[in-house]
Specification:
Elements: E1 5-15, E2 18-24, E3 45-51, E4 63-68, H1 70-97, H2 102-122, H3 124-130, E5 134-137
Antiparallel strand pairs: 1-2, 1-4, 2-3, 4-5
Helix pairs in contact: 1-2
Length: 138
């Protein structure tokens, strides 16, 4: 697999097969085409949990590289941003078409989006197997 989205980070914690990496936003993000869609471009530092069977070969404080394929990144953007937007729009339009007041339409729309994110939270373990970050020594 080709990894197109690559960030350098520092290992913060190791728990079993999971390595928590603090990823600093770097100046390369400024020229990235998808920086507005990437969660790593929002703040100065983000933490990424990466599962690796050989997690014990890393040590806290070590500089590593975290990578993800573009297709997986786009799948994450679809689930996190595009699907809830479409759900929100559809719920709002349908409830207004059915004659609901603005207050009821707004509350149902917020409830639908909240329910969607709750479902994502409950399905997070399944999604962790589908959207896979790769960790590599620098």
């Amino acid at each position: 697999m080709k990894y197109d989205i690559v960030h350098e980070g520092i290992v913060k914690e190791i728990m079993g097969n999971m390595v928590v990496v603090a990823v600093e936003q770097n100046c390369a993000c400024g020229s990235c085409r998808v920086k507005s869609l990437c969660g790593l471009g929002e703040r100065g530092e983000n933490e990424v949990a990466v599962y690796d069977r050989d997690a014990e070969r890393y040590s806290v404080g070590e500089t590593v590289v975290v990578a993800i394929g573009t297709a997986m990144g786009m799948k994450a953007v679809l689930w996190a941003y595009i699907m809830p937007f479409l759900l929100m729009l559809a719920t709002l339009l349908i409830t207004k078409e059915l004659g609901a007041t603005e207050l009821v339409s707004g509350l149902l729309t917020l409830g639908a989006v909240g329910g969607y994110y709750a479902c994502l939270w409950f399905a997070r373990h399944k999604m962790e197997r589908e959207i896979v970050f790769k960790i590599m020594k620098r």
